[in-house]
Amino acid sequence: MAPSNVKLVYFNGRGRAEQIRWILVQGGAKWEDKRIEFADWPSVKSSTPIGSLPYLESDGQSVATSGAVALYAAREYGLIGCNNLEAALIHMIWECTQDAFNASVKAAFCEDKEKQAEMFKEYFSVSLPKLLKLLAGRLSGGKDWLVGKKVSMADLVTVSLLEQYKDGPGLEAIKAHKGVYELVQRVTALPNIQKWIANRPQTDL
């Protein structure tokens, strides 16, 4: 039975919660997208499960940290693979995607503009290509999906990161790997995801 009273709580931005939103959307969940403005965070921080966002409320319980929430949602909505090995591979890809995501966030929030430029240069020349190489390897031989024979959490979390690159070095890096570029097109064309992208709140991050 699908969980009831599902509510995802995060800031009013994509950030660490967008991957979870994509899992919930693709899984057909009935859920509430609760967003907190950055200015309100100090007053609500103490009321959260562990003092950080995102967290998910489900059936009267709260699950915190983006990884725990993503894995929980993927299991609940059939996006964690067909066996334990596929689940482990999906988790592996999630970990690698978070490494790249964390590098981009660190650069984005760096206040020293000169250092920030260096960090973004390293991200686009090292961190992102490292992730793309892994993804390209998983898609070799004309595979449609990163793990198994159907869309999974692995595809959703990676494309939720990559779809933001509409131009510049990010898009160039993706296009250098035909299979990855086609995966981005394939996932963003899924009806549920396509509708979400078209109607989600527009935010800078």
From TrEMBL:
GST C-terminal domain ranges (all copies): 83-205
Bilayer-spanning residue ranges: none
EC number: 2.5.1.18
UniProt keyword Disulfide bond present: no
Molecular function (Gene Ontology), one example: glutathione transferase activity
Gene3D superfamilies per record: 1.20.1050.10, Glutaredoxin (3.40.30.10)
Highest rank taxon of the organism: Eukaryota
GST N-terminal domain span: 4-81
Keywords: Transferase
Catalysed reactions listed for this entry: RX + glutathione = an S-substituted glutathione + a halide anion + H(+)
Protein name as catalogued: glutathione transferase
GO biological process: glutathione metabolic process
Coiled coil: none
